[in-house]
Each structure stands twice: as C-alpha cells, then as structure tokens.
Amino acid sequence: MRSMTGYGRKTEEIDSALVSCEITTLNSKYLDMNIYVPESMRPLKIEIGEIIRKYIKRGKVDLRIEIVNFQEPPITFDEELLKKYRDELERIRQKLGINQEITMEMLLNLPDILRPREIENRERILGLVEDTLKDVIEMREREGENLRKSLEEKIKFMQDEVDKIINETSSALVKKKEEIYQKLKSLSELGLSISKEDIEFLGFRGDVDEEVIRLKSHLDLLHDLINQEGPVGKKINFVLQEIMREVNTIGSKAILPGTVHRIIGIKEKVDEIKEQGMNIE
C-alpha cells in the first residue's frame, strides 16, 4: 500500500550540462500528469508519460526538467543557415541597388539563427526521470507504511467494538424476549395463546446477527486490503461504503444505549479512514 504523497529530485551531468529532474506527487482520484520540459526535450514528453504510468497508477504528478547549467554556451549558432541568409540578402541588395550594408545584428535577428543548445542523449534523460521516480516511490511506500499502521489500529478498534455489540445485544435480546413472553402470557386468559416462536418475531428489531456477520466480513476484507501491494485506494473506499451501510442498519435496530454509543465510535473511525484513504494510491 502506498501513499499518493511523494517527492524526488535528482541532478545529473548530461552532454556538458547539469540537468535537474524534480517530481512532486499529491492525491487525486485519477492519474493526472503535468510534465514541464525545456523546448528541446518536448519530443520526449510522451515517453516520459509512459515511464510515469509504469510506476504510478493514481495521483497528481508534477514533473519538471530544467537545464541548471551549461558548461558550454547555452545557445548555438546555425552557421549554415546564417550563410544562406547572408547570401540571399546580398543577392537582393545587389539586385535592387540597396546601399545598406548587411550587418551581424541584422542577421542575428533572423529566425532560427540562435537556438537553445540541445541535449541529445535521450536515454540518459529518460534514465534520470526513472531514477527520480524511484525516489518518489520509495517515499510513497514509507508514507504508505505509516498509513497502514494507523489504519490497522482503527480497524482493530472497530472489530473489538463489534464483538462487544454482539455480546451485549445477544444478552439483551434474550432478556427482552423473556420479558415480552411473560407479559403476553396473560393473553391466555382471553383465549389467545402465544409461543416463544412468536416472541422471536416480536423481538426482531434488536436482532442484528446478519448485519454483524456482514460487517465483520467487510472489516476483515478492509484489513486484507491495507496489507496488499499495489493500488488499493478505490477498493478501500468501496468497502468503507459497505461498512457504513451495515453500521447504519445496526444503529437503527439498537435497543441498548451502549450499542448506540459504540456505533457512533465506529462511524467516527470510518470517517477517519475515509479521510486517510483519500491519500492512498
């Protein structure tokens, strides 16, 4: 289980330049990528996105690559293009009889003469991205382990409360049904008979056996999910909805103030897990 919060930054010398890759990840319902690269690296954006998908399935990912420092000048001159511009301008100047001289300033303002120095080592750039992502994943796994420990404590609390509800409700139901039976026995004087089987029906409101069985099953599944590898955040959210459904039903049938109190405590834990689950991949 991983958190969706992570950060990584690495710098490497590539083609006489210091290149920095910085990645920040936050929680999001889906995989949302923002990739910022220098113009010369734009052709790599698709491949960078594929590498991100290889490591991250869910969350907001901001990746930024910057050229921190060139050991050589950061721009290049296109000498061939410069020569073509000069020759063509000279031809036009002579043909039209223009006396103005062709200056370097004039040539440098023409399109594409000055260009940012390109980093051509594609494999090393993609390798830098992958190495940075590995640091991000390591942090997400550490955060995920902290989340897992916290969730285990909350799940254990809910399991213990459910066990207490079972014990309390079982004893209370037996007592309540006996009380009803004794009171209704007086109906025999009116020629009506009532059996303990009839009381089972009358005492149905407090019977939560089916709901408790399903609730315990959902809690076991939740415990299994937080101990699995890979993306489990969406599954956790679904199981929490099922848990809350059973908890609400048990609460509506409660016949003891103590059961109501325990239900409130379980709901609070479910809400806490929901909030934490928003940051689980």
Automatic annotation (TrEMBL):
<feature type="coiled-coil region">
    <location>
        <begin position="141"/>
        <end position="168"/>
    </location>
</feature>
<dbReference type="InterPro" id="IPR013551">
    <property type="entry name" value="YicC-like_C"/>
</dbReference>
<keyword id="KW-0378">Hydrolase</keyword>
<comment type="similarity">
    <text>Belongs to the YicC/YloC family.</text>
</comment>
<keyword id="KW-0540">Nuclease</keyword>
<dbReference type="Pfam" id="PF03755">
    <property type="entry name" value="YicC-like_N"/>
</dbReference>
<keyword id="KW-0255">Endonuclease</keyword>
<dbReference type="GO" id="GO:0016787">
    <property type="term" value="F:hydrolase activity"/>
</dbReference>
<keyword id="KW-0175">Coiled coil</keyword>
<protein>
    <submittedName>
        <fullName>YicC family protein</fullName>
    </submittedName>
</protein>
<dbReference type="Pfam" id="PF08340">
    <property type="entry name" value="YicC-like_C"/>
</dbReference>
<dbReference type="InterPro" id="IPR013527">
    <property type="entry name" value="YicC-like_N"/>
</dbReference>
<dbReference type="GO" id="GO:0004521">
    <property type="term" value="F:RNA endonuclease activity"/>
</dbReference>
<dbReference type="InterPro" id="IPR005229">
    <property type="entry name" value="YicC/YloC-like"/>
</dbReference>
<feature type="domain" description="Endoribonuclease YicC-like C-terminal">
    <location>
        <begin position="171"/>
        <end position="281"/>
    </location>
</feature>
<feature type="domain" description="Endoribonuclease YicC-like N-terminal">
    <location>
        <begin position="1"/>
        <end position="148"/>
    </location>
</feature>
